[in-house]
Design goal:
About 45% of the residues lie in helices and about 25% in strands. The protein has four helices and six strands, in the order ααβββαβββα. Helix 2 packs antiparallel against helix 4 (about 125-135).
């Protein structure tokens, strides 16, 4: 009986010690990542990466069997998958096109059957955060 009580006491001591070591480490890691993710250089890099990206192609498969919550995948030119919002996915058909130009924050979905275009701002989040950070100065 004494051994069980002693083991429980040792177990509590070990848990407390581990908590005292790992909780501060965890807090420091989270703090560093929050600071880094809100730094001007990080926001500028993310904003410019998205802005300088360009791509285009035909939608060859809507991949309707894959549901990722708020986004749905589409297959472009049978080569690469792109995640898009579900509300745009529902409006697209195979054969429609997608493109994004360099130095643009928008991607365009050209609908073949309805001869219209859906415009989507893909850089809204980082553009707002980046310009808000610049305006703080």
């Amino acid at each position: 009986m004494e051994n069980k009580n002693e083991l429980k006491k040792q177990e509590r001591t070990i848990r407390k010690s581990l908590a005292l070591v790992f909780i501060p480490i965890f807090i420091v890691i989270i703090s560093i990542s929050l600071i880094q993710n809100n730094s001007e250089s990080f926001l500028e890099k993310e904003y410019k990466d998205i802005r300088n990206d360009s791509y285009s192609g035909k939608i060859t498969n809507l991949l309707s069997d894959k549901d990722n919550g708020r986004t749905r995948p589409i297959l472009i030119d049978n080569k690469w998958e792109k995640q898009i919002p579900f509300f745009i996915h529902e409006k697209l058909n195979i054969g429609d096109s997608l493109f994004k130009k360099t130095d643009s924050d928008f991607e365009y979905y050209v609908r073949k059957s309805k001869t219209d275009t859906i415009k989507r701002d893909v850089n809204k989040f980082y553009r707002k955060k980046y310009f808000d950070k610049l305006n703080e100065k």
